[in-house]
Specification:
two-stranded antiparallel ribbon, alpha+beta, globular, 19% strand, six-stranded antiparallel sheet
């Protein structure tokens, strides 16, 4: 399998984490082939192919759940990972409506979803697909009717601090009551702020696991006060203990 990560253009960096592609020399066998995903602070638009034929397209909302589903028959995946606070700006609906939600582009976006799916299917290279989605997202920003730039700034602060931020202090920094802050944050990012920070912190450990001698060091470096809280979060977001997860996933 070969993988590719493509960074977004400068004007979309506040909304898009990255584009990505994965290809296999032969289609994945139909039997005993499972795709596994952990809890995710990102919303993903994904297209699957076998040869030049589209196998599926989906939008997986930011989620607190881990999930498994069959992957047999796939030969190529292409997707874009969006920050959850980008959902109101790019899809023109509250991010909370996509929390823990799987849907087709056509169902969520109507004619736009059908247009994107058809155009992506007709392209043959990752570069063409990135260009197509880039142009679409730029056009969506010009049509912006939703979005909360004020709370988007708070979301970025949580991400910049890898989830290690006092949420009460953060709401005070924005001169909002805790209740107001939580309501606006959930509409903008799809989670309550404390849960969002927990998932971001968990993702930081996954991304930086090899920088640490062991999991205990990784947990302490990322703001966990003890091993029990770290293991609890890990089981919640992956379904496995840390050691089992890393052994199965090859991290």
């Amino acid at each position: 399998m070969s993988q590719q990560i493509i960074q977004p253009c400068e004007d979309l960096k506040d909304y898009i984490s990255h584009f990505w592609a994965a290809t296999w020399d032969e289609p994945i066998p139909l039997t005993n082939s499972t795709y596994y995903a952990t809890a995710n602070s990102l919303t993903e638009l994904v297209f699957g192919f076998v040869g030049s034929e589209k196998l599926f397209s989906s939008i997986r909302g930011h989620t607190t759940n881990h999930i498994q589903f069959p992957a047999g028959g796939l030969q190529e995946l292409f997707g874009v990972s969006l920050y959850s606070h980008a959902v109101p700006f790019l899809f023109h609906l509250p991010a909370s409506e996509l929390s823990n939600y799987f849907v087709s582009p056509e169902t969520l976006l109507g004619d736009d979803g059908q247009f994107l799916t058809e155009k992506i299917t007709l392209t043959s290279t990752t570069q063409e697909r990135v260009h197509l989605l880039t142009q679409y997202f730029r056009s969506q920003l010009k049509r912006q009717r939703w979005g909360d730039p004020f709370i988007s700034k708070a979301v970025r602060q949580i991400r910049q601090n890898n989830g290690n931020l006092n949420i009460t202090d953060l709401s005070n920094d924005f001169c909002l009551s805790q209740k107001q802050f939580e309501r606006r944050f959930k509409a903008c990012a799809g989670f309550n702020p404390k849960l969002y920070a927990r998932i971001v912190r968990f993702e930081t450990i996954l991304s930086n696991r090899t920088r640490f001698v062991n999991l205990t060091e990784a947990a302490h470096a990322n703001g966990y006060y003890d091993q029990a809280h770290f293991i609890h979060d890990f089981k919640t977001f992956t379904g496995y203990s840390p050691n089992t997860f890393f052994a199965l996933s090859g991290y």
